[in-house]
Design a protein that fits this description.
The chain is α+β, with helices and mostly antiparallel strands and 109 residues long. The chain contains 2 helices and 6 strands. A 3-stranded antiparallel β-sheet has the order 1-2-3. The protein has a 3-stranded antiparallel β-sheet with strand order 4-5-6.
């Protein structure tokens, strides 16, 4: 599905101890569980690349604390987790589609 630019451009991004909240420029508000985002980290290590097994590094995670985030250009967000893992880049397109229930994977499409 094709999304409009307003649907994938954040107006505001904030988080608390459990939720990452994005208000998109089209007025829709998405809330993501931090634990779910951490378990679905799209980096190559968490996805089982380099000879690893999918879920081997994230399967045992029971809690997630977000320390900070930064935008990656105009297309994504990088999250720094409490365990200092910070290599996952979550695209705004994939976050919006995931929140709408239209895509199973997070990361760069």
């Amino acid at each position: 599905m094709s999304l409009s630019l307003k649907a994938t451009t954040p107006e505001t991004i904030e988080f608390d101890e459990n939720i990452l909240k994005i208000e998109w420029k089209d007025g829709v508000v998405s809330e993501f569980s931090l634990l779910e985002l951490r378990k679905r980290c799209p980096c190559v290590v968490c996805k089982g690349g380099h000879g690893g097994k999918v879920g081997a590094t994230t399967g045992g995670i029971k809690e997630a604390k977000l320390l900070s985030f930064s935008k990656v250009g105009r297309y994504a967000i990088n999250l720094v987790w409490g365990d200092y893992h910070n290599t996952g880049i979550y695209s705004f397109d994939s976050l919006r589609l995931y929140w709408q229930g239209e895509a199973g994977e997070l990361g760069i499409p």
